[in-house]
Write a structure and sequence with these properties.
heterodimer, A: about 300 residues, mainly alpha, 15 helices, about 0% strand, globular, B: 11 helices, elongated, transport (chain B), ATP-binding (chain B), nucleotide-binding (chain B), P-loop_NTPase (chain B)
């Protein structure tokens, strides 16, 4: 299994997917730097003259950090999701179509070991990338605003941020044992988009009470079903809540800011049971993928 | 000991392809030619034997271990027909990966891999990435991968189809060496010359079913053919000779001075003497009469001519 795991790392490091990811990440971080800088200056300008010990200024600076981080993670979650999806979407069908598997699988290695080796390779690689991206966003935001410094919350938030990696890779590898490489990539992107849309409906509906009143429970049902089909967005919202320890700060933040945060997913985390659901979802996708691969004709 | 045994091995696909009721027995150290037209189901059979696909019915074993099991796969070296190696690895890295998967200790692999790459003819290019390899080089690399585990049974699916004549000759020589070392070779090939020179036994597959199997000499001598060189032959006499003898005959060569070479398909060897007498009675001179050596390619074409086979014209 470790042979397959290390082969996967070598593959990701040598193929163009890494080069493209690094280039796009650098571009993203440069853009994020300017956005953080602009937002940081704008807040600083509006609060100029207040003493640094003023509690209002502290809350404002913290809110400013929340907005910048919310924005950063909003886009970072897309980057991470697409890396996870596209690095693993062709792992079975693509390699079977190309004939790579025909040469490898007659070797005396159990199929489940090959599958888990690939899974561990993709998951560990993307989680290292997630750590780099997570750290970069925190560092850039800290330069231009204030970020939460509670180590436990940061560690938990990182694992929540990176938890979409095993979820998406488990599902993508399962899909790859059924669909062609391109078909699976499209399916996974649409499913991820659907989950994101479900989360967005939830956020928008919570902003417009009249809309929620008019649409009744149908919006809740749609967003709920989409979130259940793809729980990635719910995990990202939980991550932001844990990072900011939002429940303890809620009373200090003005309602106008509160509405703004919700757009980025802050303060709209699903219930704790959702985390268990996402965990079970990941494990079931992994187990189904293993089961399917054990029986698949290559 | 029996190296490969299949009993009613069947794979059915929704499109009607696959293979049906394949039963073969191959002894250890034997070279077995698995022949058939395109789409006959040869690769499907091999894929089942190496554990890539699962049979619908029947069973098979490799050196007593059920196909697909880890124990059976320990014995196998496989060169697939349609394959590609990881193009982001170098040739040596690909073979090293296969060596690791075979559980070969690093120190053994360090000695074996360079020697093997040299043997298959890509020693100088072994550090190049596979993406820069020609098809022939990839096939040589495939042979190195198949051999790295020092397998007892080699499954080779068109092992030299992408190679130039020199490469083909080298592969032929390598296969003879491997047979000499006592390896069991299961060869899928359309190169009948190679099969005829290497294999002890052959099977002919058509539409997923085995039509014939046996030793090479058995299948070639099922219907003895005699070649006769005669003088005083006139083509107008030929239909009469055919009718009188009741044999299937053909004119191979004829010259204006009455010299001709004819071939007759006999049901029994005794018919040869009777045919000789018939020709002499008609005033012809019999210069030479010998059993015609049938080539495997002729046998292949004869056996399949007029029969439908999947994906190809009759």
């Amino acid at each position: 299994m470790t042979t397959i795991w290390s082969m996967t790392w070598k593959e990701l490091l040598r193929k163009k997917v890494l080069l493209l990811t690094v280039i796009l990440t650098v571009l993203f971080l440069i853009t994020f730097w300017f956005i953080a800088s602009t937002l940081g200056n704008s807040y600083s300008g509006s609060n100029r003259g207040l003493p640094s010990s003023d509690p209002g200024l502290l809350i404002t600076k913290f809110s400013e950090g929340m907005v910048i981080l919310g924005l950063g993670f909003f886009f970072a979650s897309f980057v991470l999701a697409f890396l996870a999806i596209f690095s693993s979407s062709s792992v079975i069908s693509g390699e079977a179509e190309q004939g790579i598997m025909q040469a490898l699988m007659p070797r005396p290695i159990a199929r489940w070991k090959w599958y888990l080796g690939r899974w561990l390779g993709y998951v560990s690689f993307c989680m290292v990338y997630a750590l780099a991206l997570f750290s970069a966003i925190l560092i850039i935001t800290n330069i231009h605003a204030t970020i939460p410094k509670e180590a436990t919350n940061i560690v938990i938030a990182y694992f929540l941020f990176a938890s979409v990696v095993p979820l998406l890779i488990s599902l993508s590898m399962l899909g790859s044992s059924f669909f062609s490489a391109i078909g699976n990539g499209v399916f996974m992107t649409m499913l991820y988009g659907g989950g994101w849309l479900g989360g967005m409906i939830d956020k928008v509906a919570s902003q417009f009470a009249s809309l929620k009143h008019e649409m009744g429970s149908s919006l809740d049902t749609i967003s709920g079903l989409l979130s259940l089909a793809m729980p990635a967005d719910g995990l990202q919202r939980t991550m932001l809540d844990r990072l900011f320890n939002y429940s303890s700060l809620q009373e200090l933040i003005s309602s106008s800011n509160n509405d703004f945060f919700v757009i980025f997913g802050i303060g709209s985390a699903p219930s704790p049971a959702f985390l268990w659901y996402a965990l079970v979802y990941t494990l079931v996708a992994l187990a189904l993928g293993l089961w399917r691969f054990q029986r698949k004709d290559l | 000991m029996i190296a490969i045994q299949t009993e009613g091995l069947t794979k059915r696909y929704a499109n009607g392809r696959g293979c049906s009721d394949v039963s073969i027995t191959i002894k250890e150290g034997e070279a077995f030619g698995f022949l058939g037209p395109n789409g006959a189901g040869k690769s499907t059979c091999v894929k089942m034997l190496v554990g890539l696909i699962f049979p619908t019915e029947g069973r098979a074993s490799l050196l007593g271990e059920p196909i697909g099991s880890l124990a059976a796969r320990q014995f196998v070296g496989y060169l697939p027909e349609l394959y590609r190696y990881q193009e982001w690895l170098s040739g040596e890295e690909v073979v090293r990966l296969h060596a690791k998967l075979c559980g070969i200790p690093r120190e053994v692999a360090n000695v074996r891999i360079p020697a093997l790459l040299e043997k298959v003819g890509i020693g100088l290019r072994s550090s190049d990435r596979v993406r820069n390899y020609s098809k022939g080089m990839q096939q040589r690399l495939g042979l190195a991968c198949a051999l790295v585990g020092d397998p007892k049974i080699l499954f080779l699916d068109e092992p030299s189809s992408a190679m130039d004549p020199i490469g083909r000759s080298e592969v032929r020589q390598l296969l003879h060496e491997l047979k000499g070392e006592g390896k069991t070779i299961f060869l899928n090939s359309h190169l009948m010359e190679d099969v005829e020179s290497l294999c002890d036994r052959v099977a002919l597959l058509n539409n997923g079913e085995i039509m014939q199997q046996g030793t090479v000499s058995e299948v070639l001598q099922q219907r003895p053919r005699w070649r006769l060189r005669i003088g005083g032959f006139t083509s107008s006499l030929f239909p009469w000779i055919q009718e009188e003898s009741g044999l299937n005959m053909s004119i191979i060569e004829i010259s204006p001075d009455g010299l001709a070479v004819i071939e007759a398909e006999l049901e029994e060897e005794e018919q040869a003497g009777w045919l000789h007498a018939l020709l002499i009675e008609q005033g012809m001179t019999l210069y030479e009469s010998a059993r015609a050596k049938t080539r495997l390619e002729e046998w292949f074409v004869t056996e399949l001519s007029g029969k439908s086979h999947r994906g190809e014209k009759v």
